[in-house]
Amino acid sequence: MTTAGTTLVIGATGTTGSRTAAQLTAAGHRVKAAGRRAVPVAGAEPVRFDWYDPATHADALDGVDRVYLIPPLGDSDPAAVMLPFLDRARTTGVRRAVLLSSSAIPEGGPAVGTVHRALPDLFEQWAVLRPSWFMQNFTGTHAHARSIRDDGIIRTATEGGRVGFVDAEDIAAVAVRALTDEQAPDTDLVLTGPEALSHDDIAAIITEVTGRSVIHRRLSGEQMRDRLTAEVPEEFAALLAGMDRAIAAGAEDRVTDTVQRVTGRPPHTFRACLEREMRCGS
């Protein structure tokens, strides 16, 4: 692995960004931790960054040769702000870009899929991480986690569909390798945990580990869309509800060996992740 260069981590206080920044600094890499409020991050240089405020982009890119890209949350057309930024990044010396996308969105697909398609033409060194749904959705600040804490209910339109839920720590571990290895992946990487679980399975494991009864309530696609509209813009809510329906149809019922191949260790199980997050007070 190479220790040269400085990495800009966008969304450095978020679910994967915070873990990526922490793992990079722990390994001795220089990091600029970007966020809308430039919150201090241990071992990193904080810098203000807002996708929708180009005036913040120059300082964020100053001295940077690689970047970890978290798309703007809830934007159904992130390419509109991301592609101009990436053009600027290339001209200011960024050589490698690692984009966080989703296993549910292929190259050229909706939303961040457009950025995925453009990335190889912008940078010679690149990777697109396409993780499955995060295990932390059930333990952090996600709507599922809040609903579990408030009501003991997980609400989805996934029916009995299974998902290879992935630990954000594993996503970050792959991101660090993609950002710092001598040879960039120059491909997209589908990331999952070691097992495919339904939301019924997730509820049962949470009940067993925490001792608190949690159930999965099955909603229709329309009910899920309407519920999500209270959290995100309507167009994005429809996209997310559609992803739930795709899960119900089996689109995410898979596991990959990517975490093992890239990091040299197996991915964490949901039970292990949940037990760790409970110990950490999440």
Question: Could you give a short description of this structure?
Answer:
With 282 residues, the protein is of the alpha/beta class. It contains eleven helices and eleven strands. It has helices spanning 15-26, 57-61, 79-91, 113-122, 143-151, 168-180, 199-210, 221-228, 234-248, 258-263, 270-279; strands at residues 6-10, 30-35, 45-48, 66-69, 96-100, 125-131, 153-156, 162-163, 188-191, 197-198, 215-218.
Write the layout of secondary structure elements.
Elements: E1 6-10, H1 15-26, E2 30-35, E3 45-48, H2 57-61, E4 66-69, H3 79-91, E5 96-100, H4 113-122, E6 125-131, H5 143-151, E7 153-156, E8 162-163, H6 168-180, E9 188-191, E10 197-198, H7 199-210, E11 215-218, H8 221-228, H9 234-248, H10 258-263, H11 270-279
Parallel strand pairs: 1-2, 1-4, 2-3, 4-5, 5-6, 6-9, 7-11
Antiparallel strand pairs: 8-10
Helix pairs in contact: 1-6, 3-4, 7-11, 8-9
Structure keywords:
11 helices; two-stranded parallel ribbon; alpha/beta; seven-stranded parallel beta sheet; 282 residues
Word description of this protein:
The protein has 282 residues and is of the alpha/beta class. It is built from 11 helices and 11 strands. The chain has helices at residues 15-26, 57-61, 79-91, 113-122, 143-151, 168-180, 199-210, 221-228, 234-248, 258-263, 270-279; strands at 6-10, 30-35, 45-48, 66-69, 96-100, 125-131, 153-156, 162-163, 188-191, 197-198, 215-218. The strands form 3 sheets. It has a 7-stranded parallel β-sheet with strand order 3-2-1-4-5-6-9, sandwiched between helices. Helix 3 packs parallel to helix 4 and helix 7 (199-210) crosses helix 11. The two termini are 32 Å apart.
